[in-house]
Amino acid sequence: MRTATHTVPSATADGTSRTLLAMQNVDKIFGTDVVALRNMTLDVQEGDFLSLLGPSGCGKSTALRLIAGLSQPTRGAIRWGLPMADGDLSVVFQEPTLMPWATVIDNVLLPFRIAGSLTDEARDRARDMLARVGLAAFEDAYPRELSGGMKMRVSIARALVTRPKLMLMDEPFAALDEITRFKLNDDLLQLKDSMDCTVVFVTHSVFESVFLSNRIVIMAARPGRVIRELAVDAPYPRTEEFRTSTKYAAQCRAASDALHEAMGGDVGVH
Amino acid sequence: MSIDPAVPMADPKPVLDHEEAQRLRAERLSRTGRWALPILVFVLVIAGWHWLVTAKEIPHYILPGPGLVASTLWQDFGILAGSWLVTLTVTGLALLLAVVFGGGLAILFTQSKWIEMSFFPYAVVLQVTPIVAIAPLIFIYVDSKIAGLLICAWIVAFFPILSNTTLGLNSADHNLRDLFSVYGASRWQRLRYLQLPAALPYFLGGLRIAGGLSLIGAVVAEFVAGSGGIGSGLAFRILESSYRLNMPRMFAALTLIVVTGVAIYLVLSWVTWMLLRKWHESALKRDA
After folding, report:
1. What is the ipTM of this complex?
2. Which CATH architecture has domain B66-277?
3. Under DSSP, is residue A169 helix (H, G, I), strand (E, B) or coil?
4. A166: β partners
5. Residue among B157, B155, B164 at smallest CA distance from B203
6. Residues B233-248: tens digit of each pLDDT
7. Cβ–Cβ < 8 Å for A165, A88
8. C-alpha distance from B165 to closest chain A C-alpha (Å)
């Protein structure tokens, strides 16, 4: 499914950062004339928290599906800088996407079950993951007994339990209330740091993307394309203090302006 | 008016306000009513029936009273029990076959679109053809009467299971399917861990319908099959009693059929509840 061709330069000399994946001039056309993505070129470095930011219909979810291997590019290629096995890549969808008939721990164990490695060690890891997302007491609960935020935590635990190199997130917090979203943003940054994985995060919230990412790729619609990339100049760890700082406000302003400008100034910030 | 934030508001004493009290009362009433009302209706109907028979002096070969039906059921139970067992066996086996072949075909259909496209229309044809119209043919070609009855009952019962299970297998969440793809799940794993559990509520819905239908199929087929002797079910007893104008026994046999149908429904509802109570919406108690 994923081609592990090492055409991308791996491991720089000083070992600071390596290219994990590169999209090279990727087009995706649905049917014969619906251009979902046009000429998208993007590289993701190991350790990145990269946000794809843009309005509905800009192809950001399509880009994520292409990276996940759920869909193939019409033209262009996606190259990997590292060999990727099953479990090295995970996806978190906008809905928690849990199996309602399975308990929380069984949901988290799904990747192991599919890999045929449902060992005691796997169970320990699942328990550890649940503890990290703050749901240690809920391993035997069924999804319907959990709130929306808790379900999303289970979904994230499942995505991280295999210690993936890359986690793809498709507007995971869009359906949650703001208080829950802030908390999950904080926790996600902590998790990413402790799990040492790379994240590609799709969102249409400027504020969320600035808080979370070190790189923001701004996309526009009709046809879906990349129009700008900017770096968020703020060190990690980022905490609640960062969210109320003038620095954060300035970065949001910059991202907003970039989005506005890139969209020809005719569309407001989404 | 100012509120001093340092002084927390005292916890109010537990109070049941008027609206809540009314709601609780209504809840209690409806809980009792759920079982009391059907019983009340049953008693009223039986009493009315008894009154009608005695007051109008209806002869028992036209309409026997409930008391006579009950005593006939008791006295003739030796004759009826054997037939009951036959009907029960045919019904049970037909339901089992419906589960195996209805469910099996549904799984086959979801594994291959081509097979589904080829055969689903014929499953529909089998379903829409009235069983009484095919039954005589079946009894010509099949020697064993029990086998004939089984085939008839199965034809009536399998379709709801087939169509419901097919629907259920195809209704697994799209994101979950994608997730299974991302983790490189095999076709078998997808079926075992995703499609089958997702189809379970649908399958059980079909099963409850099929349970009643297999009894109907078994009874109807026997009316067509006719001839008596050993291996005759309740439907034959009804036919036989009507020839002999033995109305009380006819009603007794009918009672057994009704009891069987209700029992099947209750058992299957219980099975459904046991399998789904932990996770499925249909088995949840909704908060007011």
Report:
1. 0.89
2. Orthogonal Bundle (1.10)
3. strand
4. A89, A198
5. B164
6. 899 899 889 889 899 9
7. yes
8. 17
